Amino acid sequence: MYVSLALFVVITSYIAVVIVRWALKRHKRHNLFKRYGIPGPKTSLATGNMNQLKSGPIPSHVITSWLKEYGDVFGYFLGDMPYLVVKDLEMIKQDFHVFSNRQDIFLDMKPFNKTVVHLKDKRWKEVRSFLSPTFSPGKLKLMTDIVNKKVDITLDIVEKHAQKNEMFDLYELVQGLTLDVIADCALAMKTHCQENPKDIFLIA
């Protein structure tokens, strides 16, 4: 019995020490921005500011409210991961070259880790410089006629439904519009996803 009690005390003490060390480490981590004089919302020891971000309709609404409260530069935490929000355009232009990488994404495996959103540092800059001319104002202007024609189809479909005074799935229609534009502009393919919900490109 005494052995069992002693073992229980040892295990309980060990768990208590682990929890206290974790709490102190997390508290120190959450004071990162405070040490540098950067304002931000109060954090929860376990989740950081995750619950606050979930409290609004969408996280961006919460971040917008924080911008109004804390100014153009503030920090928040998701768990123990710090996030620095910067709205000051001059500061972004000045220091962007140091912080050009995106946050790590869970899907870190081939071939997904070779896409633009996963690339980092020099490789990302190389790919960006290669892709940027494709999306120049002049190139995008050439796509205007294509986009306008696809939107005209959308408006015709909406008008037909309005004349019949019938309900329809707007999400499905906009999804078809999006795919029609992508197929024509990016792949030079003629699709009919708006007129035909069973179009093979839409189903795929």
UniProtKB/TrEMBL annotation:
Gene3D superfamilies tied to this protein: Cytochrome P450
Keyword annotations of the record: Heme, Iron, Membrane, Metal-binding, Monooxygenase, Oxidoreductase, Transmembrane, Transmembrane helix
InterPro entries: Cyt_P450, Cyt_P450_E_grp-II, Cyt_P450_sf, Cytochrome_P450_3A
Gene Ontology MF term list: heme binding; iron ion binding; oxidoreductase activity, acting on paired donors, with incorporation or reduction of molecular oxygen; steroid hydroxylase activity
The UniProt record lists the keyword Nucleotide-binding: no
Pfam families from the UniProt entry: p450 (PF00067)
Cofactor: heme
Transmembrane segments: 6-24
Membership in a protein family: Belongs to the cytochrome P450 family.
Name this polypeptide is given: Thromboxane-A synthase
Source organism of this protein record: Araneus ventricosus (Orbweaver spider)
